[in-house]
Give the backbone structure.
Amino acid sequence: MKEFQTSKAIKRLPDQFFATLIDKLNAYESKGWDTINLGQGNPDQPTPDHIVDSLKEAADNPEFHQYPPFHGYTFFKEAIAEFYKREYDVDLDPETEVAIMPGSKTGLVELSQCFLDPGDVALVPDPGYPDYWSGIEMVGAEMKPMPLLAENDFLPDYEAIDSESWEKARLMFLNYPNNPTGAVADRAFYEETIKEAEKHDVCVIHDFAYGAIGFDGVKPLSFMQVEGAKNTGVEVYTMSKTYNMAGWRVAFAVGNPSVIKAIETIQDHYFCSIFGGLQKASATALLSSQACVDELASTYEHRRDLLLSGLEEAGYHVEPCKGSFFAWLRVPEGYSSQSFADALLEETGLFVAPGIGFGASGEGYVRIGLNNSEETLKEAVVRFKKFAEK
């Protein structure tokens, strides 16, 4: 069969890290292996009933059977603005400071397409979410990794970025609570970020995917809560983690009007927004009682405590995750992140994500998801202990 040559943009794309991971897990499971999937960030709880019921009701509305407005329904944008005012005391203009996205992954790729040209630089967290790289590579721009190190609380050190990179940089990607380290950022860090962004004319993209998941009584800070943030960039929020709506593919960006306009412009050529029923159900989620969100965060905190205490007892060192639903585990001496992940899978059936897949500074760690029941995590701890004792 004839094989057609793809574009240079497609050839530049890196292998999709998570797709490769799941292919590997599926290969083992197809052989009948007893595996425990700790490698994905896929919420395991169902979407709350009141949100599902809202979608069911909306599906009967003939208005939503037509094309939605290109930039989304006003009622959803207004719900987003009300949500940000209630949760973070941030004022947003629904028409100029809110953009609806078909999932945050798509939006994060689009942002690189909106603001980067060949030769431009994007500052990316290392380790960080690998799909930041996809949009950057697609447009032929360059990445400057910002190492996230334990000794700096997994925050980037802006003084370590060379002047040439600052001069060429047009975008900076940040993500707190952080995937994969579980770290959080404080107001002082965001103030420093805004200062550097204004100094170097860099647009900040803050990925707030895990904004609802903070531990030990600390609510994660929104970038938009800090003075000057709206002038320097946007924050991307997804319904996936907060409301267990990963399969629904609904997200939004808030902040700088010029960035919002660029997102909506590129989406005019890609999409005709998302199904109105999804927008209606998402508005219901944002405006209804948030008791389900509090319960979810508490569930993840209980799971974290169970897992970390068990791993520490078994002799493993785990960085204290303060948010997100991930634990960042140092691999034992003598292993790389990949060899440790491979050995765990082959010898115990435990499937974890090797840190090297999140960037060079992820070497020496593996990421463990908290997206399993407590019983499953207890069994995982047993297997970790057996591996440590061999």
